């Protein structure tokens, strides 16, 4: 038994420590493809902040790397284990600690699933907007670590916009408390937003205070069908230009629609090349006017058909279809999901260029995404047992990021860098920004113990 | 002539360098009271990023501190000169470089005044929300450096929520480009939001890309009068609890109203102890309903009178009154403006405790602020030529911050730390957070050249 495991046994209760190789196996990977994963020396199932502190201190004592993990639903390999590391899983820290309806915040442990938290606050007439498609199986801690987005970002912004305060275990085992419970506050550097999105490389989040909004009105939903992805992209640009306020604006192409129909036994129209889904939660006449505006703009921009959902249930069904898209594509083969975000004025160009990549490389790419944000998830589907196809898949995946950068976009809108896009990060941000990343990493984690090799290579 | 001035002469065009003591005098102070200010060795009036780089490199060569300055409208002494320093003023970098209506962003130099930028984007049907009361005489660069708030934060958030990308000159003279022009993006650490609010201690902002929103509907405005500040505070809590969406919710007490009447020759009602101003920009029936809800809640919570503005001009006049409050109080004597933000549920407690401080210390305190955010600006007014009164003013100023912290609030909601609240910062954030601040400062500015002694003492 290694020294670090021996020390962990001394400082942790037995139920917080896993060293059995079979049990540890499931803690090796998140949901990213083509990312290496090592074999951990131990997995710590922290029940409280003190367990995280104890584990970090034990790891620091022996210079062993620490890999923090939420629900392992990540798509960039940020939660993948390293050989001989201590995995610190936060999945058992799954309590909602406080919901404050007047000051509108919730205090939560990181292991709570996004949908669980969203439903708990909804019961009190409140709304936690960030809603990744994976909300039923992703944790708040993971959302914080990657600064997750979701479907309603187009109106309500992303995770970082809702984080008021954090409790963070630092690399030296100390507890950092960032932020505050007030709406505004500028006392000192914004350490909260520095930790959010840092993918476990600067500290381990053990508690979060998240801002809430009042519940929204019942949404009105519509779908519009287009003869080509580019036409749908052009309609989106006109919708954005109009300034109409939507709470959701998503796109799915025919490949994706077919996959969802098969997976969810749904009956979405497969004759169109692309479908937009738009939602307004403005309520009453305002919501109806928003949807009418979108329908008009879609018709003026080559929509084949516009269908308004008859009721909320029908609207929910459309959203369920969209949320299931990645799982549905997973059924067709191995998937690699891109996460490029482009300036919205370039969406049609991006869709066209992505479709060309699929044609040129003769590979399936399902085009879907948060169109209203310009955050697209072209998903390459392939047979991983065919090395030649796997190679082309990798080329397509990279080519799509390259197109994103060429159009003034970013390699990742919400999934993070992890190990999957480390080299691409350097390309996107350049040497000065990379060097600043390294300086900050070294300042907060001088031994390079926290999730080393993720995001930036030191 | 000192070595650094000699080097500046070599590397800068003559119009970018001021060394005449009389001309330099006005570059010594921002608008904070009781903050020491030194005499600079030189003032650099940068016209372009390269001038900032050259000045930073010259200062670094001789180990001379650099103090970046915007419009010197700050209220915490962050822009005050240090003895022998190089002041780098950004006021001549005052061009708006690009307005992009579809992608909804503006690229601007830092010296542009907030109101100038706001009007320029409004001409294209766009809206830049952060609107400090000082918007006519504060610069975007200063807004970024202190993460300014304003009147419409209650609905639209603060400066950091609108910053997409920055160009920053680092302590070593290199140019850091943070962020991107897309709506979303998580590639790497959020360096943008780390720089925002860092008060010139981590880098000097030379360009910013700011997100815009579509123009809002015409606002509806109302005022409500109350018999006591505490009653007004209780009404605010009920307004927040109701979830009604307001674009503005401000409070002014009788002291402030009287000062504004005298200063602006206005005719605001002086018989009430406190006045709330509420605005909805939801437009049409929704806006009318919002204002009706607020009026109803005010009446149910002891309002003496509720008055809806007849038209937009009357509403604008109320806002103009609120924006002039600090300048009006300045006419009554020397002022020290607090900037405490408390959880909104504690507003009535905060107002009551602040009034008690004024009574106990027999000193004038004008109570005003962004009530809807819990961000209050109690302003101590005193005769600075009377040492005993000045002492009590300082005690009152500090006591109000203490109350804010006791109520779970922060010492600064939007004005920043500067030198004025350095000791208070340590009290608010504690030793671990302070040590993380110092690590980050040392990582980005190892020689401690950028605005040393501001925010954190190294």
UniProtKB/TrEMBL annotation, chains A, B:
Q: Which InterPro entries match?
A: FAD-bd_oxidored_4_C, FAD-bd_PCMH, FAD-bd_PCMH-like_sf, FAD-bd_PCMH_sub2, FAD-linked_Oxase-like_C, FAD-linked_OxidoTrans_Type4, Oxid_FAD_bind_N, Vanillyl_alc_oxidase_C-sub2
- Name the Pfam families for this protein: FAD-oxidase_C (PF02913), FAD_binding_4 (PF01565)
Q: Which Enzyme Commission number(s) are on file for it?
A: 1.1.3.15
The portions of this protein that span the membrane are none
Q: Where is the FAD-binding PCMH-type domain?
A: 36-215
Do you know which PROSITE patterns this protein is assigned to? FAD_PCMH
This protein's UniProt keywords: FAD, Flavoprotein, Oxidoreductase
* Broad EC category: oxidoreductase
Q: Which SUPFAM superfamilies match?
A: FAD-binding/transporter-associated domain-like, FAD-linked oxidases, C-terminal domain
Record keyword Oxidoreductase present: yes
Q: Which cofactor does it need?
A: FAD
Write one Gene Ontology MF term: (S)-2-hydroxy-acid oxidase activity
The family assignment reads: Belongs to the FAD-binding oxidoreductase/transferase type 4 family.
Q: What is this protein called?
A: Glycolate oxidase
Q: Which organism is it from?
A: Kribbella italica
Recite the lineage of the species: Bacteria, Bacillati, Actinomycetota, Actinomycetes, Propionibacteriales
